[in-house]
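Troubleshooting log. The previous run stalled partway through. Resubmitting the same two chains, unchanged.
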Amino acid sequence: MAAENQTPPVLEARALGKTLGGNRVLDAVSLALPKGCVKVLIGPSGAGKSTLLQCLNFLIPPDSGSILLEGREVNARSRRELCSLRQQVGMIFQDFNLFDHLSAMENVRVALMKVKGMSKLDAGELALAELSRVGLLDKAALYPANLSGGQKQRVAIARALAMDPKVMLLDEPTSALDPELIGEVLAVIRDLAQNGMTMIIATHQISFSASLADEFLFMEKGRVIESGSPAELLRRDSGSRTLAFCAKISELSGEAGEAGLAAGLGESVRAGVSVGAAGLGAESPV
Amino acid sequence: MDFSLAYTATREALPYMLGGVIWTVGLICGAMLLGLALGVPLAVLHVYGPWPARRAVSIYVWLFRGIPILVQMYIFYFGLLAWLSTLPLLSGLGLDSPFVAAVLVLGLTSSAYQSQIFRGAIQSLPAGQLKAARAMGMTDAQAIRSIILPQALRLSIPAWSNEYSILLKDSALAFTIGVVEIMARMRAIASTTHEPVSMTFLAGIIFFALTWVGVKALSLLENRVRIAGYTRQGAA
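Second attempt completed without errors. Output:
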């Protein structure tokens, strides 16, 4: 974060606006992702988190505002610039979006061949290396239909990593997973963060992200209404919207455990919110 | 009805009737392939094209679905192609042959139906896959070619086999403009042998056998390209 002034952020959004069906889904949202920084988007459904992430790589074209990749504004009208941006910005979806007709290895390989122009052999080798990075080397030949949700999401992560992105956008990566499968995916994400990957994650896994995030961004009605370090926002006496929201989530998910939160935060926070920490310590089944 | 007479006549007619199979197979192979070659791009345009293209595909589909094949055969054979083959540039290309007219009519009509089969299959795929392909930097053309179509075509095989059996039977109409396929031969031989009933039966059996062979072959193909554990409800 200290380097913010010297080198431009890896990815920056300036005053993004988007109206969908008469609703102001994004209202002049700005954010910057300095290298190696992990930011977490929190907020109720419909707050615009997913739209924001998809505007960052123009999967949803914003109505106004601009996107800067390493300080250079991206011209979304140029197909080449758009494809180049998307290669450098990896994206993970809630529903994995694996290609059902391709094996795990082929899922990782296809864009390497089509987009990066790699040979089948080189692309295949790299694909296997990426799959082994997420612990799925032995599943390389399986088709998505024969993988568990957690495995699918890890293949999706390997697929995105293979493109060697400068930043990763994760759109609720564990929301479609059964609770017992969440841990393996979170472990991979934690690993990425520890290796210095620049990331922005929309998630409801509060305690997990609290232990990982440099900054929480709380969104509501298309705006970022609070931002700050997790410790700051989740302090019992902070009176923040974030704290109230997280407390509500934890209430709904039951007394899932305070241990996870404690891993990332101090005592005062632990007392303030008891947040669902499903699967934080879970072992990957592979 | 004298069955022994009918039997002898049928047996003697068989080689002549089977000679018509070549023409029928030629008609449906030509028509299915033309329908496939046009149907796939039409479907892609119908789903992903800009609105004028979508509109144009719609009109095309309505036109070929709405006009009876027999009427089209007459329009193409006696009208359009007869006129085209008088043009100096196109004369000598054999455009005035009834076979060409029949393949064109059956193929264009089939392309209209096939485009709807493929469109349904494309639209039954989860939209997220195109999104994921785009998110990795693929162009829409790359994504459609290597992600969307391989899946959509697999899902289309059952409906495609249905289209084959319909087309096979529509091909019998080609006798009206003079293609000497099974139906034409049946009528010719029925009038010389005075065994119309048995000849009609024979033609029916040949058509049935062709349907069976084609549908079986397509179902073998379907199994061959099936992906382990992959099923999608609402396909076809």
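Takeaways: Confidence is low (pLDDT under 50) at residues 255-264, 266-286 of chain A. The beta strands of chain A are 11-20, 23-33, 38-42, 64-69, 72-73, 89-92, 167-171, 198-202, 215-220, 223-228.
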